[in-house]
Amino acid sequence: MFLNFSFIFGEKIGAVDKSTIFESNLESIHVMAPDPNLLLQLVQIRMPFGRFKGNLLCNLPVSYLEWFEQKGFPKGTLGIQLQTIYEIKLNGLEYLLDPLKKNK
Description:
Elements: E1 2-5, E2 14-17, H1 18-23, H2 38-42, H3 62-71, H4 76-90, H5 98-103
Antiparallel strand pairs: 1-2
Helix pairs in contact: 3-4
């Protein structure tokens, strides 16, 4: 049985044999624990470079985030934050950030 993963924590891996996952050394798969502060960061942190430098990550336009999706998100924490806000906007979930914007 094959599973097709597009991304596992930001790394492209392609199709994977399910039996290989369970039989292989799982230490080689880097699993990141969910960050409970990630959504809060999206309404507090500003874009550090580029066309929208200084804008809050939650206020970046979808077209800019789509550009990153096509060209590649930055590595590290900023990349995770940009991917997260992209998925939130793509799926119409921006309302989840409203209470955080009011409490910042």
